[in-house]
Structure formats: structure tokens, C-alpha cells
Amino acid sequence: MTLQTETISGTLAAAPRVHAVRIPFVVPAGIGRLHVSLQFEQRAGCQLFLAVFDPAGFRGSVMRPGAPGTVVLELWLTAGAASPGAVPGAIAAGEWCALIDVERLAMATAWQLVISCAPGAADAPAEPPPPPPDAEPRAGWYAGELHAHSQHSDGTPTVATLLQAARHADLDFLALTDHFTISGHREAAQQRVPGLTVVRSLELTGHYGHANLHGVPHWIDCYVDDRPEWTINHAARAVRAAGGLFCVNHPFAAELGWRYLEFDWDLADLLEVWHAHEGPGNTLAFGLWDEHLRAGRRITGVAATDSHDVRAARHRLGAVRTWVYAQSSTEAALLAGLRSGRVAGSRGPMVDALAWRADAPAQQWPMGATAPAGSLGLRFTSTPVAVPWHLHLLKRGAPWRVFAGPAGVPLSVELVDDALPGSYYRWELHAAVPLGDYPDDRWREWHTLLAFTNPIMVAQAGGAP
Fold first, then answer.
1. What predicted TM-score, i.e. pTM, was given to this entire model?
2. Across all residues in the chain, what is the average pLDDT?
């Protein structure tokens, strides 16, 4: 038998705008290798991605943002191996589908899809991934990165390089969040880097926002646009059903910000309130977080690097960390810790917060817990800070108290406050930086932030959480 090739061509019009084009094709029986390529002219305002599905579901995706010119997106797979972004496995006979994801399209663009089926016996199936490395059995704080990309989507590093960089940065866990695909999970499991837990994740990369789907044991359909039968809310529910966490990413990142107006925020588990590349957008993200906290939603705030190249300064792992208190370093324990809200974000110091009944100090509540209304003791602690600092206590999102201190000493700040029903307390640690002609240095700006805690909630009237 000889190679079987099919070429399909078309043109995408700039209007009316479509978000995806699905092209069915048939794979005959007895195929040992499948190769799919998409060619188009990438220009300013034009960006296309490619995904492939077999009769049972997702088999891979490929994306290549970059300079203008002729782009060929290629994806291949066999039973035992696959290109980055693709999932190895049996090549089933039947109707497959190529999906052209239209990320941007400012002008009419011609495309050509080439499907090549190579007959032959299937090669040996891919080895099942080994069990994860032994976890730290201790309950305690674990530092990690919740947003990082590899060559399986638009990142520069291999999975091996990414994991080694995470361990070199003294991280305890790393979420592998490649766009669209879970193909890197198997490779990450095979690396088995001692002392590092890989959280199996992917980034839902929609046309109205991005979300990390953390702790998913299988692929979750992340193509949610122009599909009334499968919306962003369906995807979020599927993540929870799989035991994972749904994280809204960089909500104010211009056209990559969160614009799913129909999204049910009760389905959000996490929110990126600090993103290494978003600058002033982080200030807005904290405001959005407070809006939902005031509405009674338990959304855990997290920090992220969104690393695409561990060699680049802005993408270096470890400069931004999310600290999670967990019962061990397993993926399940880390997810439970994130879900509990005993979490802090930091650009340096390790911080913590605690509340207790002023008249019964043995009754205590950490971040994420719900304390009763009434007189509460509140404590913030931090490892030494490298610069002079000021510390903000926020009550129901409003600035309540401000403290200041010098560099180089551990922090421990305590006070007693009348906790109102339905309120909450959270802390922000900032560098003391004068701004322009303003003599004060007690600013809560994105570039002064050093660390933040998650809230300690206060029960509603009647004791309801």
C-alpha cells in the first residue's frame, strides 16, 4: 500500500467573523502514521491554530505565534509517538476532524490543509506513564508555579528543561498549562524530578478569555466559542466533575482578558490576581477579586509567571510564587490546599495570616477559614523583607489599617478588631516607594506589591458561613 494524501483548500473571510472551522476527513483502516499540516500566510492581524480529533476525541494541537510569513503548522502521530502537542495512540479508522482555530483575522486569508495517511502496522504503543515520585508526607507550606508553557504549545523549553528550571528555582510544584493540550503530561510523568510535583493542567485559550484547568486527569474540551451545546460554563463544570480547579487567568489582559460575560462566577475556584506580565492590570484584578469576595464567593487568589521561556528575565521561574498549605506534596493534596484558600502569593517573602477569638485565643482560623463575628485577634507574619515596607489590612476590600517597618527583620503584626458579619480580612505587603511629588509612600500599586494573603472570612449573621 502507498501513502494516501488528501489536500483541502479554502479561504477565511474577515467578515462575518468565525472562531473555528471544522474540516472532516476519513482515515481508512490499517494506518500506522497520520500527518496533518496547515499552511497559511501569517500577517499582522492574522493568526491560526490547528487541532485534530479522532472519532473518540482530542488527538492534538499545534500553534506557532510569531513573525509574518508563510507558516506551516504540522502535527503527526503514531500508536507509540507523536509530535509536540499531539497525543500518541491507535489510529482509528473512521471520520476524523481538523479544526482551524481563528485566533485573529483582519483580512481574507487562504489556507491549505494536507492530510497524509501512511499504511502499516502500528508501532508499539506508548509506555504508560510511571507513578508520580514519592511525595513529601509532611503537612506544611509548598511553593510553586501555576502557569507555565512548554514546546507542546507556544513555550520555548522542553518539558524536561521546564521541570529542571522549576527545581533549580527551589519550587515544590509546577502546573504544566500548555494551551489546548495535555500532551506534555506523559512526558512530565516520565521525567520524575525528585522533590517536584507536576500538577496536570491545560490552558483553555478561548476567544473571550483564558483559564487554567488545574488537576485534570484527562483532556477537557476547551473549545467553547460558537457552541451553544458546550459553553465556558460547561467546561468549568467538567473541570469540577473531574476533581480539578477552574482558574480565571489574567482577567484584564486587553483582548486576552476575561470577556465571557455569560460566565457563572460561582464556578470559579481560582483567580490570577497577580500575573508577572500584566503590570497595572494586576491592580484591577485585585479589585475584581474583592468584588466577588464581597458577594460571598470563595475564590482563591493566586500568583503566576505565565512562563514561556525560562531563560528570559520576565519568564524566569521563582520570581513569583504561590504558597499553598497542604497535607502533603501530592497533586491531590495541593489541589485541596488551593481549594481551601490557605494560600498566599509572593514576589519574595513567605507570609501567613491568622485570626482568633479575642476572648478565647485557642480558637483560631487560618486563611480560607470562616471565623465568627465579634472581637477577633488578627496576625500577619512574614520572613524578612529586603526593603522598607508598609503593610495594609483590608476589611471587606476597604483599606482598614496600615503598618510600616524597616528592611531586614521578620514581621509580626497583631491587632484586635470588631469583625462584622459577612466581612473578611486580607493583607497586602508593599515596598515603601515614594511616587513622584507625593510625599507619602504607602501606596498599593502593582509595582510595589511584595506579597498578599487570601482572606479570612467572617460568618454571616446567625453564624452561616
1. 0.95
2. 94
